[in-house]
Amino acid sequence: MKTFIVKQVKIPEAEAEFPNEFGWSGAEERSPAWKAKLEGMHFRKDDEFNLENLPHFKDCFKVQAENLDQVFRITNLWDDMDSVQRIGEGGHSTSVGDIIVDTETGKSHIVCGFGFKEVA
Questions:
Q1: What is the SS3 assignment for 65?
Q2: What predicted TM-score, i.e. pTM, was given to this entire model?
Q3: How many structural domains comprise the chain?
Q4: What are 80-92's pLDDT values in tens digits?
Q5: Which residue, of 31, 59, 67, 100, is most buried by count of CB atoms within 10 Å of its CB?
């Protein structure tokens, strides 16, 4: 069993309503965190990860699993809560644009619409 960290973009509370107030493009223009979240949500395997977005990703879960697919399953079905430790507040089911870090190898992978892509 290996240990993985799931990282997700954290939107500052003061910016949470930006999409409602300014639309998606307005939120992206006003908030680097929203820009990082939206770029992640639309990430495809042939895209290059924008390293400027990395500071907006915060550790949310520590997961004991065999591989990336199992991390994704556990943090979506929530059927093995003994394998998940929450880090801090917040966090949601793992989805497209989230990053999963293998703590053993140090390699990071972004969740794509289908599969994962290593983040250099």
A1: strand
A2: 0.92
A3: 1
A4: 999 999 998 889 9
A5: 100
